[in-house]
Design goal:
- The protein has 84 residues and is of the alpha+beta class.
- It is built from 3 helices and 3 strands.
- The protein has a single domain, classed as Ybab, Chain: A, CATH 3.30.1310.10.
- Helices cover 57% and strands 20% of the residues.
- It has a 3-stranded antiparallel beta sheet.
- The chain is elongated and about 55 Å long.
- 8% of the residues are buried.
- This is YbaB/EbfC DNA-binding family protein.
């Protein structure tokens, strides 16, 4: 489990909105989260479309995190199996 903890501690996950105006980056454990907006983003979107862009970026980041977590779990489990 130490390997799994280490793999999660060093992870960096990035998700971008469909139009690339919003970028969400999460790093490490405990997570540090950064939200970056493209120049002019607030003028380009209404409140509702801006919300959709943020939600889209978060969904992409969460999918990337789940994929990373699955790979980390498989790697940690594989190493544990080698030692049993």
């Amino acid at each position: 489990m130490a390997l799994l903890r280490d793999l999660l501690r060093i992870v960096t996950i990035t998700g971008r909105s469909p139009d690339r105006s919003v970028t969400v980056t999460a790093e490490g454990s405990p997570a540090r989260i950064d939200v970056s907006l493209a120049p002019g983003c607030s003028r380009k979107h209404s409140e509702q479309s801006f919300e959709r862009q943020i939600n889209g970026a978060i969904r992409v980041a969460m999918l990337a995190y789940r994929q990373h977590l699955t790979r980390a779990w498989e790697q940690a489990a594989g190493i544990a199996e080698e030692h049993t």
